[in-house]
Amino acid sequence: MEQLALAKAVRLSSDRSSFGGSGKRISVVLCHREDPQRFTTFRFDVISIMAKLAKEKYLVLMVDDSEDDCLLIKMAIGKADRLRFIGSVSDGEELVSYLSGKEQYADRQRYPLPDMLLLDLKMPRKNGFEVLQWLQSQPIEDMTVVVLSGSDQREEVEKALDLGADYYHIKQPDTQKRSELIKLLEQYLTRK
To answer: For the chain, what are the domain ranges?
Structure first.
């Protein structure tokens, strides 16, 4: 194996098209000891965990047909340091349109992809289980899915987790418990 020495430049560049959306690449240029005019370049993606640690705010989208539940969660998230509530949709069909960037949701500046999805199970048109099945076939990376449901039935919890939900929590009517839940959700994102 030829010996390589670290050359003068280490470069950080941004190239979203060729790096699957991570957007950052580090290039390390090494020159050969025997022939300093010959170089080898190694490129590394900046791992997503490093980007997540540096991220200031995580985007949260809620899917729930209850306006009251959405409002209560929005208010609780408003007090969180690192979470930003970007909106809510009222059923699974609307969520599919949002995540697919269809119709009114085509503008990603206005409707960005969330870091966390808060998903109710019992909704009209497409329920939470159907949404979880649909998400399994989608190339959406680094989105944490948390089921927030009024149901504590063991079968529903297991089914949601089997279908790909990262976490399952019971909706909290108490303000203090809801605030504790939001802090826990924040921890999920910074740990992942």
So the answer is: 4-46, 53-191
Q: Taking the alpha carbons of 89, 93, 96, 98 in that order, is the dihedral positive or negative?
A: negative
CATH number of 53-191: 3.40.50.2300
Is 38 strand, coil or helix? coil
Q: Which two tokens stand for residue 71?
A: 């409002």
Q: pLDDT per residue over 127-173, tens digit each?
A: 999 999 999 999 888 899 999 998 888 999 999 999 999 999 998 88
Structure tokens at 112: 């960005």
Q: How far is CA 8 from the centre of its chain?
A: 37
Task: Write down the H helix ranges in the chain.
Answer: 48-54, 67-78, 92-100, 128-136, 154-162, 175-191
Q: Name the CA radius of gyration of the chain, rounded.
A: 21
Report pTM: 0.70
* Total length of the chain: 192
Structure tokens at 69: 């539940």
